[in-house]
Specification:
The chain is an alpha+beta fold. It has helices at residues 3-10, 13-16, 47-62, 80-88, 94-99, 134-149, 183-187, 191-200, 232-278, 284-299, 310-317, 320-327, 333-352; strands spanning 25-34, 70-74, 104-108, 113-117, 123-130, 156-157, 161-162, 174-181, 203-206, 219-224. Helix content is 49%, strand content 16%. The strands form two sheets. Strands 2-3-4-5-1-8-10-9 form an eight-stranded antiparallel β-sheet. A two-stranded antiparallel ribbon has the order 6-7. The longest helix is centred in the last third of the chain and has 47 residues, at 232-278. ATP binds at residues 27-31, 90, 124, 175-179, 206-211.
Length: 354
């Protein structure tokens, strides 16, 4: 399979589409945790109950019209590599892929909406949009939520709100997050003072794949921690306010670098570009660092002939699962580094041939 055909089949719409402030905000995500009434939570339910929940969701999707069409994928029917690719595309969590033998996921054709089944909660409704579109993601999530609730009854308490396996999700059950590319704040050494300030506002800063992951390629996820005592709209509005400030600070940092270190920054960008276009072997950390530099060069106008979404696309396509899927089978780490370098070179060459 050619790389172009592979990309056309493998890349989600949020990875290639542009949204508001998408030079800094790569994506916005809203996730709603829900549990079905009359069933034990996933930490205690039986295999039969887990299967009944999957069958209920399958029945809902089967009986709906094409506008809400979703495909059902069961974890016990998928190969480990297939599940890993879904994790790398942010469509399912590592927990669902690795620790949920009776799990499943419903995914729309454009992959903007996914519903994880029998993860930590019975349902995790997720909407993923390009750029800063928290309100739009919340609106879609609420529509899907209402559609599901019209068919089944949720576990809900008038005082505490939606009931969840983890107490930190009780209330709205909402986790809103924004994925941001912040090289300016890194290069000007401001990020270390900003992160503690964000944490004090009830938000948390994580790496590209959430809790426990590293901030590869200067990519960070900012998300809410509080779900009880605030409405969904308030949570998203507060997060958007902080993100808007980060966008402003990142833009100011980039302009400061242009004024004080322009030639050094341009040199850094093109050195990284040279590494990506000429390397025959490259590890994930080095690739992430160089891709971040090149994306910064695109955003600041140093590089004019590359896609504006090259960073997020290649950050995901060069993850281990995708590399092995493209290769057609398992690869040793060393062979993945070779394949990663070749894929990046070929992808960058595609830009010149368009």
């Amino acid at each position: 399979m050619s790389l172009e055909r592979f990309i056309n089949h493998a890349v989600s719409s949020w990875m290639t589409a542009e949204g508001p402030d998408s030079d800094i905000v790569l994506s916005s995500r809203v996730r709603l945790a829900r549990n079905l009434d009359q069933y034990k939570f996933p930490t205690l339910f039986s295999p039969d109950e887990a299967k009944q929940i999957i069958n209920s969701m399958e029945s809902i999707v089967r009986d709906t019209d094409d506008s809400n069409r979703m495909d059902l994928l069961k974890m016990d029917e998928m190969q480990p590599l297939q599940k890993r690719v879904l994790v790398e595309k942010h469509l399912i969590s590592p927990h669902l892929a690795e620790d949920s033998p009776y799990g499943a996921v419903l995914i729309t054709e454009n992959e903007e909406v996914s519903i994880m089944i029998n993860e930590e909660d019975h349902l995790r409704i997720q909407c993923l949009y390009p750029g800063l579109q928290l309100s739009e993601a919340l609106e879609t999530a609420n529509q899907i939520d209402d559609w599901v609730e019209s068919h089944i009854q949720y576990a809900f308490d008038e005082k505490h709100g939606y009931l969840t396996s983890c107490p930190t999700n009780v209330g709205t059950g909402l986790r809103a997050s924004v994925m941001m590319h912040l090289p300016g704040l890194i290069l000007t050494q401001q990020i270390n003072r900003i992160i503690p300030a964000i944490n004090q506002l009830g938000l948390v800063v994580r790496g590209i794949y959430g809790e426990g992951s590293e901030a590869l390629g200067n990519i960070f996820q900012i998300s809410n921690q509080i779900t009880l005592g605030k409405s969904e709209e308030d949570i998203c509005r507060d997060l958007k306010g902080v993100v808007s400030q980060l966008i402003s600070q990142e833009r100011s940092s980039r302009e400061a670098l242009r004024k004080t270190s322009n030639i050094q920054l341009e040199d850094r960008v093109f050195r990284s570009y040279g590494v990506l276009t000429n390397s025959r072997i490259i590890e994930s950390k080095e690739a992430a660092k160089c891709l971040s530099d090149v994306q910064l060069g695109i955003d600041m106008g140093y590089i004019k002939n590359l896609s504006k979404k090259i960073l997020v696309e290649l950050m995901i396509l060069t993850q281990p699962g995708f590399l092995q899927q493209y290769a057609g089978g398992p690869l040793r780490p060393y062979d993945r580094d070779i394949r990663r370098a070749a894929l990046i070179r070929e992808r960058l060459n595609m830009e010149f041939n368009r």
